[in-house]
Amino acid sequence: MNRSINSGPDQILPTEEITTTNLDEPVRLRIPESGKAIETVAPISVPGLLKRTSEAYPNHAALAYKAESKWNKISYKEYHDLVRTCARGFIKLGLERHHSVCILGFNSPEWFIADLAAIFAGGVAVGIYTTNSSEACFHCANQSKANIIVVQDQKQLDKILAIKSRLPHLKAIVQYEGEPTSPGVVSWEDLMIIGRDQGDEELDRILKTLAVNECCTLVFTSGTVGKPKAVMLSHDNLTWDAVSISQRLDIKKGEEIIVSYLPLSHVAAQVVDIYLVMLNAACIYFADPNALKGSLINTLQEAQPTKFLGVPRVWEKMHEKMMQIAAQNTGIKKALSSWAKNQALQHHLNRMKGINSNSWGYCLASSVIFKKIKQALGLNRCTTFASAAAPLASDIKKYFLSIDLPIMEAFGMSEASGAHTLCTIDSFGLDTIGTALPGMRTKTVNCEDGQGELCMNGRHVFMGYLNDQEKTQETIDSEGWLHSGDLGRIDDKNFIYITGRLKELIITAGGENVAPVPIEQLVKAELPHVSNAFLVGDTRKFLSVLVTFKTDVEPETGRPLDTLLESVQDWLKGLGCPAKTVSEILAAGPDPKLRKALDEGIDRVNLQAISNAQRIQKWSILPVDFSVATGELGPTMKVKRNIVTTKYADIIEKMYV
User: Which Gene Ontology molecular-function terms are recorded (predicted)?
Assistant: First the structure.
């Protein structure tokens, strides 16, 4: 299997090490000596994969983007040529072997091209969250020894200009949207001109030195606890994960997949949107940065995708909008809608139990009602609806089941190249994250009461954390198992369930371990007008919960506003304590009628508690909802528990006086 050091990019460099913390060191591939065909798929590099697809399907559309109200498509041959041109430009601008190109911007063809070009040119691709502050950007760029930083626009550029003098390896900044006005910043057009002016000799020489078992991508964790760690991913980590996902989803050649709104610094988006698509000669339509402000529906209607992946917030926003529309139904229309939803919900609940229940009622509702809903959403051709990056509440999944849109939960982590499990329409449930993808293994360790830490193994397991041997050894054991930090269990059908997070466990004063996330989701399910529920009680005698109400958000920044959503206002009016803002609720005390409604919701949650120690005894309403902009949520919408407990320490203390 070992080859010459200059026969890349698909060569495998000799080594027996299964981890590394250095960018210039390879690792041993975890390919079993025997096993299923999928487990022994020949390793291929990122450049090798794009070259193979562009040669086999040169005229297939690879990328579709909208400009001046018109959709434009880039073929795979054009895609490959653009990547090579950009790579030559990066080399001319000074990109060194094993140094990085950091990319700071939203989804776009330029993002994809820059990402792949960095790898082609012998560097390392690094996505940076668009929500990062200047200091957070500095951490990523400095750690990865960035030679080049690619930014979307002036807003992102300003972050880099503020830290430019502190980045000793930085040689060039490229802006891919708008004309740069700052001295020394290279426009995307000029970068491509530079690339076109260069010959292929140097690029081809560098490509021959690449190997599938060396690092090509760094993914910085969201930093919900401490500073973000740099996850090192090899070519094989990424391309192999794409192979496994592809087999589970049964993706056909030439399918069209919509990019989720997430900036592509998130590894799940990179795997699905770049490598999975590239592997299958599929086409991506780019949703714009305003996807959560209402524009996503336009992209869906125009693209008519066959697969659609959205983060939980995408599905939550769709749910909120559809509930507002449904609330306007009256009389026969309302009764017909309720009947149809019951038919669909029961149909899918039966399917989970292995019961084939294509009743006449479901078939009628599907052809008459749900067909129109799917057409309105642009999802009438879609065969897979998936959610990833964070848990999606069961009540949201149940709602979409009732309108015949079964959402498949996916689970993974940056350290597992993005994906490890996925539900499918033939094998799913409301509470499970599915079964492991083909060629991937799962086990639990240190089990108590039937649950333990979830561990993963396979070719998708990362190489190590850059410059952090201690954390690497904590996360990957001597046998190559990745310790996720998630508590979970595996049932007799190999379905995997996450029951908590080891580092997020609340340990009460009585010594009982409590996983907060399941209880928080129950609160939101029983009190649907609550946006976020945050459980507290570490070292305390009992549990309490902080709640926020659903409010409008500032369109540009995403900051929560004081104004309650119309649906929340209607609920309060129905209780007999009308209010239009959170401030009004808090100024009133809150109203006894609202207190009664919240108490009753918490009581319903407590009825489902498995022990007295897991019952909530007190609650408080927070003055503002959580958001990325205000710091309580990370880029993947996960709660930063340390930030919340510090920010609202006074409110928490009052509940324990």
Answer: long-chain fatty acid-CoA ligase activity
Please tell me the distance from the alpha carbon of residue 74 to that of residue 596, in angstroms, as a whole number. Answer: 58
Can you tell me which residue has the tokens 């409604």? 597
Given a contact cutoff of 8 angstroms between Cβ atoms, the answer to whether 456 and 444 are in contact is no
Q: In terms of Cα–Cα distance, which of 186, 161, 10, 220 is closest to 94?
A: 186
User: Which CATH architecture group holds 504-654?
Assistant: 2-Layer Sandwich (3.30)
Task: Dig out the tokens for 402 from the structure.
Answer: 């009732």
Any idea where the domains of the chain sit in the sequence? 504-654
Which tens digits make up the pLDDT trace of 528-579? 999 999 999 988 889 999 999 999 988 778 899 999 999 999 999 999 999 9
> What is the amino acid identity at position 330?
T
Mind listing the pLDDT tens digit for each residue in 258-285?
654 444 445 555 666 688 888 889 888 8
Provide the token pair at 380.
């009438």
The C-alpha atoms of residue 305 and residue 293 are separated, in whole angstroms, by 20
Return the ∠ at Cα 138 (arms to 236 and 104), rounded to 5°: 60
Report which of 127, 130, 129, 138 is spatially closest to residue 101, judged by C-alpha positions: 127
C-beta of residue 62 within 8 angstroms of C-beta of residue 76 = yes
pTM above 0.90, yes or no: no
The 10 Å CB-count burial string (b at 16+, else e) for 209-230 is bbbbbbbbbbbbbbbbbeebbb
Contact partners, residue 313, CB within 8 Å, separation at least 6: 292, 637
DSSP 348: H
Instruction: Write the secondary structure of 590-630 as one string of H (helix), E (strand) and C (coil).
Output: CCHHHHHHHHHHHHHHHCCCCCHHHCEEEEEECCCCCCCCC
Whether 216 and 124 have beta carbons less than 8 Å apart is answered as yes
**Nearest to residue 345, comparing CAs of 297, 293, 405?**
405
